[in-house]
Write a sequence for this structure.
């Protein structure tokens, strides 16, 4: 059964158990694993590693594309296998260890990990572990539902373990476009000028001698955990749609807009979902992850092409997609994340980027990662790659969290991931702040008036007025700037103590 | 005399006085002026504007390449001509008005202003005012000592005023390389793959009908105000040289390093100066401004080519350069700042970038702009363009300021311009912190040990230890994080009160 998927016959005797394959990975090694936003991760070798760690010392540096599914990060963290982790994660157990200082987490722009590997800025990959649909007659690896950093890991590693997942339909072949920038100083322009353009190969071209082990698996990706749209996210989508329509009417955008990017998660997914009923047509995506909304937009005929690095769907849509690939094949492409997130291409294409903020401050600086300014949530992911180089950089968030005890609009964010320079538009369920061409004081008035929740609007206005009286390009009362966060930490709410007493 | 500089004869009758030319600029207009780091600014029309403002309402939006010399920003600010200003400035009077909230200052990545103009994200330029050496037979404008945004302003504006500066030698012709990305969605790759490559024209190609006035001037650029190297900056240069040498010996860099960028100012200039006595050879620069150190490196034979957007020199070096252009002509090139700072090219070339920090925090976030977190110094300039896309992003600063009362290494920067993701190396006179591949807690230990001044080292270590005990990826004591800045503001020192009493 699996032999038809290993088309280079001399590799057939590389098929081993997950435990045998995992034995190639030794204590202290750097391991590059496939997987991007829960899609296309390895399904067996990670668990074999965790089992082995129970009987011998085994601590590794684990690099991936982005987050893993199937509880891999949880199991590896519990088994204490992960000493260092990069460039992204989203697992509760691993997160706890990161925030306890037990796992060193290097939070990176997703376009940069491979750049740093290739130039020797970070330790080289000893072993790559990559999920595949099949191996070609020349030993090329055909990835599954994500490309992420798999291609680069496989090409840069000394040894490669391939997991062939029989649950992944062979029809995924042809969906990938594998290409990289060459090593400096001889790098040429990347020839990509449109989301639908193919510039590479449909498989990862490696020397088959590097394939040290092949493991056969049969397990699905973990489903997306994005929640369905609710009143708040629908309202955010509505404000953004109205704004884009206004830009089209003003002649600043065509009805096809610009290529779209949307970050992973509930709000960005809902915003894209909102485009199903929009008047825009012939939309294209150039994103890092395709979610349910992408499939809905393709089904609705709104979207004519989608390029990304992974496909992460809820259980129902996953089945529909994976077993009807012929319906989508000509309108989808999966690329290495170095290409999906590359500044060169992003700046050239001029995207409308939609990413989720944990909190924004009144001047439009965005915190995407650190709860309370200190505790890592998931990581910056691709948001910096996209926001910095966007035609129009949009950040979305609900105006409050924790039942209203946390305002997502604060005097000063407690951690900065995106500076005001990289934030054009902020949208909450209350409205949209168009910050283009505005100075910080103007940004503050717009954000407070349009985005803040009414219960925090006057408090923010009061802070801004008192700070402005002291002067500055970006007025602040430093002794008070982070007091909202301290208030939530110590009293469970950002509302001031006297308001509670009243 | 001037007629030989206006080679399209029918433009001869466009020559008018500065006052007549300035009359084209009316209240409420957006004006794009040449000038980048004090080089190639207009010498007469700005003053005519200031004079007119004494007798009639005249408030404009002023865009430039970067900072202006010749007190232009001072005079225009005093005359209340500037309502809005972008994307950079460095004048004390204008700065005062910006920080008082009287002038709206839009601080931008220098690569982005023209991108935003071209796509209609910010208000269009009504009139461009551009300094030139000459006008070609076809009406093309030959810039002087900077290109900056002049070419784009001239091409996008409805009307163009050209100032022909007779003090600028005609030999500057041929030094420029004018080229732009085309408007999206039809943008092609920018073909530049090496600092020395020419991809454009030696003049700004505009419809000569747009040239509405020509003013003849004869005035030098303001000299650079960079200070000569001192013991501290020499020490910073030494640490960086040692590190680069180590990288070469480890095979991570060639003896030609990677193309160099250095920000404007005393420290970066001194660091480059330090390379004169280094073992590196065949160095190249791909920077935004060429300073005295560039000329010294060329003279010393260390540097084989330098590409930038302007030349800003001290008085003595300026004369030497301007009247010996034949010595330098084949080894220099001036480009539009959209090209000198373009993410596509920077990421492709893989620069070593050297920029100055106002302050860094223990996790390696950098404040380049806001004194005390609130008051604008100059602006982010190109530092974000370069640091984000660098092969190796270096930030330099002296470890203390104000005679030791301010530590440049603080628990938390009071304003973030560059996040930890974009900062690889920090250097002070005490040493160098190599932050590549490190998690925030590791970054903190390295920065405190290597970069902090001894008088603040224990205080920083104490903060970090107490914060770490509370947990987090990026541990902080939010109630204390900005207290050092408050201490300096209220007591004149970041040293704690009890230390002063002791």
């Amino acid at each position: 059964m699996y032999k038809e998927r290993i088309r280079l016959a001399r590799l057939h005797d590389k098929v081993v158990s997950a435990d045998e394959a995992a034995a190639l990975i030794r204590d202290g090694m750097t391991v590059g694993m496939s997987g991007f936003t829960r899609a296309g991760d390895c399904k067996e070798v990670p668990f074999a590693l965790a089992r082995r760690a129970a009987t011998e010392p085994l601590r590794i540096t684990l690099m991936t594309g982005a987050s893993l599914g199937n509880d891999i990060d949880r199991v590896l963290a519990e088994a204490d296998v992960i000493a260092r982790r990069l460039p992204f994660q989203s697992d509760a157990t691993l997160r706890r260890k990161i925030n306890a200082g037990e796992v060193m987490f290097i939070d990176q722009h997703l376009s940069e990990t491979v750049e740093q590997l290739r130039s020797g800025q970070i330790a080289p990959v000893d072993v790559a572990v990559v999920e595949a649909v099949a191996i070609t007659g020349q030993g090329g690896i055909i990835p599954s539902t994500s490309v992420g950093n798999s291609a680069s890991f496989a090409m840069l590693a000394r040894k490669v373990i391939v997991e062939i997942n029989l649950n992944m339909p062979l029809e995924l072949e042809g969906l990938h476009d594998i290409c990289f920038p060459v090593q400096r100083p001889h790098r040429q322009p990347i020839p990509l000028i449109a989301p639908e353009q193919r510039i590479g190969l449909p498989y990862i071209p490696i020397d088959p001698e590097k394939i040290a082990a092949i493991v056969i698996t049969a397990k699905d990706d973990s489903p997306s955990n994005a929640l369905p749209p609710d009143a708040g996210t629908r309202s955010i989508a509505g404000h953004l749609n109205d704004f884009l329509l206004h830009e089209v009417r003003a002649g600043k955008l065509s009805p096809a807009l610009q290529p779209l990017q949307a970050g992973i998660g509930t709000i960005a997914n809902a915003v894209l979902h909102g485009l199903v009923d929009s008047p825009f047509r012939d939309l294209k995506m150039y994103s890092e992850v395709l979610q349910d909304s992408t499939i809905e937009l393709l089904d609705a005929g709104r979207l004519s092409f989608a390029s990304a690095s992974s496909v992460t769907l809820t259980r129902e849509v996953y089945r529909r997609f994976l077993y009807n690939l012929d319906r989508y094949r000509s309108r989808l492409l999966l690329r290495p994340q170095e290409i999906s997130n590359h500044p060169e291409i992003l700046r050239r294409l001029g995207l409308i980027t939609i990413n989720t903020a944990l909190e924004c401050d009144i001047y439009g600086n965005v915190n995407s990662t650190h709860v309370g300014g200190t505790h890592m949530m998931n990581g910056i992911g691709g948001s910096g790659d996209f926001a910095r180089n966007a035609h129009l950089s949009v950040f979305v968030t609900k105006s409050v969290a924790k039942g209203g005890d946390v305002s997502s609009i604060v005097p000063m964010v407690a951690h900065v991931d995106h500076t005001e320079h990289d934030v054009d538009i902020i949208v909450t369920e209350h409205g949209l702040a168009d910050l283009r061409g505005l100075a910080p004081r103007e940004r503050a008035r717009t954000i407070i008036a349009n985005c803040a929740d009414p219960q925090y609007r006057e408090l923010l206005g009061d802070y801004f007025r008192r700070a402005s009286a002291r002067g500055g390009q970006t007025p602040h009362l430093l002794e008070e700037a982070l007091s909202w966060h301290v208030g939530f930490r110590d009293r469970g709410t950002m509302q001031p103590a006297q308001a509670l007493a009243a």
